[in-house]
Write a structure and sequence with these properties.
The complex is a heterotrimer of chains A (339), B (489) and C (303). Chain A is an all-alpha fold and 339 residues long. Chain A contains twelve helices and no strands. The longest helix of chain A is centred in the C-terminal third of the chain and has 34 residues. Chain B is α/β, with parallel strands linked by helices. Chain B starts with a strand and ends with a helix. Chain C has a two-stranded antiparallel sheet. The longest helix of chain C has 45 residues. The radius of gyration of chain C is 19 Å and the shape is globular. Classes of the chains: A mainly alpha (339), B alpha/beta (489), C mainly alpha (303). Chains in contact: A-B, A-C, B-C. At the A-C interface, helix 4, helix 5, helix 10 and helix 12 of A face helix 2, helix 3, helix 9 and helix 11 of C.
């Protein structure tokens, strides 16, 4: 019944040696050389730090933003538009790059703002609205790269390559690691500080952990807090999109994100929504993606396998948290009896 | 047929906490049996075990000498038991007939189910419209439905958990009359209650639980009231007498000062368009404790929130200080965030108005002083607050609200669910305030005795109107309050 | 008139065709939600169904394809049920993980079995079966009654669900579990089992939804071919106000939105075709926004 099997090429390891080959390729691709670390793993970790942060900020405040993917795409589109407009002009690189960061942040925040508006004005669950907005964003980018932002020859569905003064500087000579990673680190540490030390961060946490108590006991304006969280979360995801365009692809095209916005959920959960750990968690997944790409090149294992790992990691974290909770409840009852 | 339910040697642990240790209880057919005990004594757990909702760690349950093996409440229902839970186990979005039919198998015939509800209503006087949606029923009707549900499954032993907590005095009286008749017809009734007097009035037999153990079993009115009280509070409870409320005349307070809280022709209409408060004018002065009485839905919920600044009136005006301390009824939902530490929960109180950085060091100091002042017992100020017992959580809420709002404090059922000692400490924390000028306090409890013991003035809510009741000459005379609660003139 | 018929009949036919997989998925989701479970992992079950349909149809024909799809969908949701019912993890996050797992697993397995260029792989689709007389009715005849058997199955499933929810104690138990699980337990209803079964049913229907995509429409598999139908199905349930008939009606509306997209693309208008591709998603948002204050949601949904 199956019409064609001719292209089939099995990658399933036939023996231990082949399995070892695949794993070696994974490790080599992630950490095997200076190039692997600085030009593969950390480059892939860069968007994951930023999107992971977007998800962590939102989830911490109880905002189930599943829409980081769409916010990233729109941010990439915004940054591309600015880069194309200002690139090649006399403006110095730092100015153009700053404008790209701002454009990405504003575009991402605006896209998330739609979901915030729908939640507050119309009571639409953000889980559904953000997912729907992801699909709309995909079609929006698809239109942009065939319409207003298409390269001049109109031959390919992608934007023109951005000019030199719109390309983000590399951090290490000879390696591809770019400014976006530094921005990710700074934003992660800043987020941690805001969450732990400021009233605004505490409000976001209170709304996430106990909305009713925050409103009743703390007189917190929950709608306002949630809206801010949406905007900040969307801005982080938007900057991730800007960083991809400015630091890696130098152009906008349809498949610019291989699902970073979804991987981000695993990144954030593995970090237990702690902004500092998001960095570590993003590097882990960045290594996984870099390694998987190498594995596909060298051992023929498809890189979509990473999505499987993402799903499994999320489930493992959930199950782990559940067991941890059960253990905590047991400890608590010991205390209660002791008092 | 006369039946006999026996629970013997029942043990149950929840985690490391022993809820029941060697508890026993014998319910004779044809009697009303009161199961008494403080909060947390294990009454409800014991009866949930009898009803198959909780599996005991050890112990036996037998009915007429035959041992019962209950895997779920379905088995208990099949054996002829019925339970009316304190929080009704009804599905609000479904009809009376559908609720009565829950748990059965096979096809559901609406006409047959409705006929059954009507027939039971006819036999017993517990009439309810089978087609009404449960969410449209009054609290009294919902309780009738719970009993009808049990009777529809041919229950001959009825277990009722705090059945009068939500009823008006008239409804309570009606219920007790009905239960006596049910027992006289050969049924058996187990009454879980903390209202000693009501229990002694209506019950034939009494079982008293203390910290999970059966400490008193008595039949046929051989007991005397003070023996029961002694058993209730345990050996170390001598300092708290009666039902835990000091039955003294209201304390003399300094002459009230200036008005702190005031409502002027305030009305409140909720989101569904129901008018909850009509044209309320009152003021509370510094040094006063305004007691608020009202049955469920009479308007006290909204009144307290208007005074505490948690609601704004839809018309009329309100005067209150910038900060009013508020102790809401459901502390784990409205006052505390269970997953946060004590220090963080202290910070929560001002979270909406703070700007910039938080000074955690200063907040730790203030948290510690609250813990010391109110004797909040727990493993420390940096642990999650849900590691504390309910009483200690509530003491912390009282201390926090007092410390942030010096001029006015509003408390709603602050002692609900607390044991006698914790309740006394919480009451003292609310009413024994100091400062100059003294704060104004508003105190609501569904327990009238508690309100009368604490308040310097009393208002009663009925149908959204608020009426002040002058103190009768005899401090034990409750009639004017009861009349006002029922809307009688 | 003749012109209208020429335009209308294909449109109505396309509406029903695209509504079919949505209706399967949404009716499954409806049952899960009436038990109080929001199954965001439905998308994963649909794509698993697509893959299961392809593999089993390749091995044993179209009938086996439907069985395999149902099995694959149930397998995905069994994992979901284990997590949310047995372990009591967060429904939304678990569901998202299951969707990712479903998309990744099917993509990986597909490439594993057929290589990266395996998109050429096809299986035969089931042909429409015109019903005598009924399919001769003007306009709606060909649309409603010249469809594959899988669509006809829905004509039985929908009234059966209406009847079952209203007239069986099991239907009452399902609703009670979603409205007030504790009360249901007190009445002797095993609510965990009810939720498990409701979730498995949603997986079964999600799998069949995937099967209709592969076996009644496309005839092949590509990665992520569920294209958000699982999420749209959740919106369909909301729009249908948690009733089987309402859900079926809402699925038709979305089918019409998809069908419009084909119709407008054919018209070669100046509007970019991506606008029509995005239409169902935008429509979902607009309709959900217009349904503010929906009081009919099961009270324990998501808990």
């Amino acid at each position: 019944m199956i019409a064609s099997r001719t292209h089939a090429r099995s990658w399933v390891p036939n023996d231990a040696a082949e399995l070892m080959d695949a794993l070696v390729a994974l490790w080599e691709g992630a950490f095997g050389s200076a190039y692997a670390v600085w030009s593969a793993t950390l480059v892939r970790a860069t968007p994951l730090v930023l999107v992971g942060l977007a998800v962590a900020i939102a989830f911490r405040a109880g905002v189930l933003n599943i829409g980081a993917e769409g916010q990233l795409l729109v941010g990439a589109a915004g940054a591309t538009a600015v880069a194309l407009a200002l690139g090649g002009t006399a403006l110095p690189m730092p100015v153009v790059v700053t404008m790209m960061v701002i454009a990405g942040a504003v575009a991402g925040a605006a896209w998330a703002g739609i979901a915030a508006l729908l939640r507050h004005r119309f009571g639409v669950l953000e889980v559904i609205s953000t997912i729907m907005l992801n699909f709309v964003a995909i079609h929006l980018v698809s239109w942009l790269v065939r319409g207003p932002l298409q390269e001049p020859t109109l031959a390919y569905p992608q934007s023109e390559t951005i000019a030199d003064n719109a390309r983000w500087p590399f951090l290490i000579p000879g390696q591809r690691l770019h400014l976006g990673f530094a921005i990710g680190l700074v934003l992660a540490l800043l987020t941690w500080w805001v969450t732990a030390r400021t009233a605004a961060g505490f409000r976001a946490r209170a709304v996430g952990d106990g909305m009713r108590a925050a409103v009743s006991a703390g007189r917190v304006d929950a709608a306002r807090t949630v809206t801010w969280v949406f905007l900040v979360s969307g801005a982080c995801a938007g900057i991730a999109g800007a960083a991809e365009v400015g630091g890696v692809t130098w152009a906008l095209y349809e498949g610019i994100s291989p699902g970073y916005g979804y991987t981000a959920i695993a990144v954030a959960l593995l970090a237990r929504l702690d902004a500092r750990w998001v960095i570590v968690s993003a590097v882990f997944f960045g290594a996984l993606e870099a390694g998987a790409a190498a594995m596909q090149r060298n051992a023929g294992v498809p890189s979509v396998a990473v999505q499987v790992i993402v799903g499994v990691v999320v489930l493992a974290v959930l199950a782990g948290a559940r067991l941890h909770e059960a253990a905590r409840v047991r400890r608590r009852t010991v205390h209660a009896e002791g008092l | 047929m006369t039946r006999r339910l026996e629970l013997r040697g029942v043990h149950k642990r929840f985690g490391a906490t022993a809820a029941l240790e060697d508890a026993r209880c014998t319910v004779r057919g044809g009697t009303v049996h009161a199961l008494l005990g403080e909060n947390g004594a294990g009454k409800t757990t014991l009866m949930r075990i009898a009803f198959g909702m909780v599996a005991p760690d050890a112990g036996s349950i037998s009915l007429d000498g035959r041992t019962l093996h209950l895997r779920s409440s379905a088995d208990a229902i099949a054996a002829g038991l019925g339970m009316v839970h304190q929080h009704f186990m009804l599905v609000p979005a479904m009809t009376v007939a559908e609720n009565v039919s829950l748990g059965a198998r096979g096809p559901f015939d609406l006409r047959h189910a409705s006929a059954r509800v009507r027939a039971i209503g006819h036999e017993t006087g517990l009439a309810i419209d089978p087609r009404a949606l449960v969410r449209d029923l009054s609290v009294g009707a919902q309780q009738r439905l719970e009993i009808v549900k049990a009777l529809a499954h041919d229950a001959r032993i009825l277990i009722l958990d705090e059945p009068t907590a939500v009823l008006t005095p008239a409804e309570s009286h009606e219920l007790y009359t009905w239960l006596r008749r049910f027992a006289a017809d050969g049924g058996a009734v187990v009454l879980i209650t903390h209202k000693l007097r009501e229990a002694l009035d209506v019950a034939d037999d009494v079982t008293v639980l203390h910290r999970g153990r059966t400490v008193l079993e008595d039949t046929e009115h051989r007991f005397v009231e003070h023996d029961v009280i002694a058993a209730l509070v345990g050996e170390d409870g001598a300092e708290v007498a009666g039902e835990g409320i000091e039955r003294t005349a209201p304390r003399m307070r300094p002459t009230p000062g200036d008005p702190v809280l005031a409502l002027e022709n305030a009305s409140y209409t909720d989101a569904k368009g129901v008018r909850r408060l009509r044209d309320v004018s009152l003021s509370v002065r510094s040094g006063e404790v305004l007691g608020v009485l009202g049955v469920e839905g009479a308007g006290q919920h909204e009144l307290l929130r208007l005074l505490a600044g948690r609601l704004e009136p839809t018309s009329g005006s309100v005067v209150r200080p910038e900060r009013v301390g508020f102790i809401p009824e459901d502390r784990l939902r409205d006052a505390l965030i269970p997953s946060m530490s004590l220090v963080e929960n202290f910070a929560l109180a001002d979270a909406g108005t703070r700007r910039g950085r938080l000074d955690w060091a200063a907040m730790r100091v203030r948290t510690q002083s609250i813990v010391d002042d109110l004797e909040v017992r727990g493993p420390g100020i940096d642990v999650r607050i849900d590691a504390l017992s309910g009483g200690n959580q509530q003491k912390f809420v009282v201390g926090r609200e007092r410390s942030i709002a010096a001029r006015a404090l509003v408390a709603e059922n602050p002692t609900r669910g607390l044991d006698i000692r914790a309740a006394a400490r919480v009451r003292a924390g609310i009413s024994d305030l100091h400062g100059d000028p003294l704060p104004a306090v508003v105190f609501h409890s569904s327990d009238m005795d508690e309100v009368l013991a604490v308040a310097t003035r009393v208002v009663v809510c009925f149908g959204g109107r608020v009426t002040e009741i002058a103190r009768p000459a005899d401090p034990n005379d409750r009639e004017p309050y009861t009349r006002a609660l029922m809307g009688a003139q | 008139m003749e012109m209208l018929a020429v335009a209308l009949v294909p449109f109505l036919e396309a509406t029903i065709r695209t509504a079919t997989p949505l209706a399967f998925a949404a009716l499954g989701e409806l049952v899960a939600e009436r038990a109080g479970v929001i199954n965001i992992g439905l998308e994963g079950a649909i794509v698993a169904g697509c893959f299961g349909a392809l593999i089993s149809a390749g091995a044993g024909g179209v009938g086996a394809g439907f069985v395999g799809a149902a099995f694959a969908g149930m397998l995905m949701t069994a994992l979901f049920a284990f997590f949310v019912v047995t372990l009591r993890t967060d429904q939304i996050i678990t569901g998202t993980a299951l969707t990712l797992l479903g998309l990744g697993l099917t993509g990986t397995l597909y490439r594993a079995a057929f290589g990266a260029l395996g998109a050429t792989l096809t299986v035969p689709t089931i042909a429409p079966v015109p019903l005598p007389i009924l399919s001769q009715m003007p306009f709606i005849g060909p649309a409603l009654f010249n469809q594959p058997l899988s669509t006809y199955a829905l004509y039985f499933i929908i009234p059966a669900m209406v009847w079952w929810m209203r007239n069986t104690h099991a239907g009452l138990a399902l609703r009670a579990t979603g409205e007030h699980a504790e009360a249901a337990r007190a009445a002797g209803i095993p609510t965990d089992r009810v939720r498990w079964l409701a979730i498995l049913f949603s997986g079964l229907m999600g799998g069949l939804s995937g099967a209709t995509l592969v076996l009644a429409q496309v005839g092949s598999f590509n990665e992520g071919m569920s294209a958000g139908r699982g999420f749209i199905a959740i919106a369909v349930v909301v729009l249908g106000r948690w009733t089987p008939l309402g859900t079926a009606g809402a699925a038709l509306l979305f089918g019409a939105a998809f069908a419009l997209q084909y119709a407008f693309q054919a018209l070669d208008w100046a509007v970019p075709y991506q606008a029509f591709l995005a239409l169902p998603y935008v429509l979902t948002l607009v309709l959900l926004a217009s349904m503010r204050g929906r009081t009919s949601a099961p009270a324990e949904l998501g808990r």
